[in-house]
Hints:
- By secondary structure, this protein is of the alpha+beta class.
- It has helices at about 1-5, 10-25, 55-65, 70-75, 90-100, 130-185, 190-205, 210-220, and strands at about 30-40, 45-50, 80, 105-110, 115-125.
Amino acid sequence: MQDLVLKTQDVKELLDELAEFTAVAPTDPATAFCSITLIQRKKPVTVARSEDSAGHMDETQYAAGDGPRLAPIRQQTIVHLPDMTVEERWPGFTAVALEAGVGSNLSVPLILEGEAEAGLNLHSTRPHGFTSEDISLVETYSYHASKALRLAVRISQPAEAKAHLIAAMESRTTIDLATGAIMAQNRCSQATAMKILKIVSSTRKIKLRDITASVVASVSQDPSVRTHFDA
């Protein structure tokens, strides 16, 4: 887990690596694949998966608002579906899972901080694909995975905040340059120039930053003109 945090560049990359790493955790990794569900602002989304076939199963549950992906996160407990052919709790999910070739399912919660919640979802292509040892291993593993994910989020936050600040500064500078150009062309005040830009933005239904960027590019006769800030 420490190696994953150290070698990955951002949280998304960590999640992708975590999904692939988790898929080989069971006794018979040849039959297993994994997805990771994140719930933020009450909206669930699959943020990583070791195979694309997990996506449709996840979306079926999100649309229904319930299923073995969501129950572990909400109840903070392990959900094990040993045999999909006799599972009756979530018939919509069961039908999609069987169609995708899933024989059994194991989902465990990940303990995060703040408003976000997450869970690891393991699928096996055969019934009773997870032994009691697998379940115990994944439960322990999820504890360490939670710690690694929390650490990765904390490490990424300063870099993300810095990137947002630089983007905001560049956008503000572009707006100021465009306002100055409008003032010079129309011999008007800053407030009037800004009002003109906002009217154009609203009329054309184009974001203000895009309008101002086009104004700056037009004045400079250089479509590639950019503002720059040292990192």
